[in-house]
Amino acid sequence: MSWCGCYPAASPVAVTLRKLVHVAVGSGSYRKGPALYAQQTAFLHQIQPSGTLEDEQTCQASTADHEPGAMNAEDRVYHERFMREAINMAELALVSDETPVGCVFVKDGEIIGRGMNETNRTLNGTRHAEFVAIAGILSKHPVSIFKETDLYVTVEPCVMCASMLRQYGIRAVYFGCWNERFGGTGGVLNIHSDPSVDKPYPVTGGIFREEAILLLRKFYVQENEKAPEPKQKRTRELKTEIMPMDLHAPKQCA
């Protein structure tokens, strides 16, 4: 077993984690800010960042391959069905005092795995929703199943998860809102589409975007008693106004 206690040492998950920990802990870059962390973790796929925090005013992020507006009515109903299941998992995470991110993995129209963030409960920063779901799937299925499987997740996968998904050969990813600080599928890096490594996977963002954002806002106005130095949030108010899609949607970087 690997150092994380959950994944085989030679598995894509463990390899990805070791690379990320080497950079984030060894260099201390994570503590210096997410933009620098994203820059330094770009070596995972030898790619250039598509946008960083310093670029927000001119280029918030690169676009996903597709947006939900491009779907026909039948496809929209199909994809919203499974994103609703992911939202349900995120809501469960919220009431469990976890960052409200949830996901489901779908093969042939059937859910084969579910996950939600478990980083607070386990005190393990790698227990993202995707990692939790994949661990469960691999206990019942071979790795090859991911080539015929789609992921629905409420928030764009982070750099770590995006790399893991590519190494496992996920067929496609659908997400709710963009991850503008740690996104690995367009929010900060384009790990999903770099042509030099593995097989790329298509990404569609913006499905139930508003609900995904509101769940995150609800969490961040709560107190996190497990944080090293909890910030006093009792005076914070939940903002319910969300910018329209055409204003918020990331712009293509030059």
Automatic annotation (TrEMBL):
Report the cofactors.
Zn(2+)
Lineage: superkingdom: Eukaryota
Recorded catalytic reaction(s): these are:
adenosine(34) in tRNA + H2O + H(+) = inosine(34) in tRNA + NH4(+)
**Residues annotated as domain CMP/dCMP-type deaminase:** 77-196
| UniProt signal peptide | none
What keywords is this UniProt entry annotated with?
A: Hydrolase, Metal-binding, tRNA processing, Zinc
GO MF annotation terms: tRNA-specific adenosine-34 deaminase activity; zinc ion binding
Q: Which residues form a coiled coil?
A: none
Tell me, which GO biological process terms does this entry list?
Answer: tRNA wobble adenosine to inosine editing
Tell me the InterPro entries matching this sequence. APOBEC/CMP_deaminase_Zn-bd, CMP_dCMP_dom, Cytidine_deaminase-like
* Keyword Zinc assigned: yes
The EC code for this enzyme is 3.5.4.33
For this record, an example GO cellular component is: tRNA-specific adenosine-34 deaminase complex
| UniProt xrefs under Gene3D superfamilies | Cytidine Deaminase, domain 2 (3.40.140.10)
Q: Give the UniProt family note.
A: Belongs to the cytidine and deoxycytidylate deaminase family. ADAT2 subfamily.
| Name listed for the protein in its UniProt record | tRNA(adenine(34)) deaminase
Organism in which the protein naturally occurs? Lophiostoma macrostomum CBS 122681
What lineage is on file? Eukaryota, Fungi, Dikarya, Ascomycota, Pezizomycotina
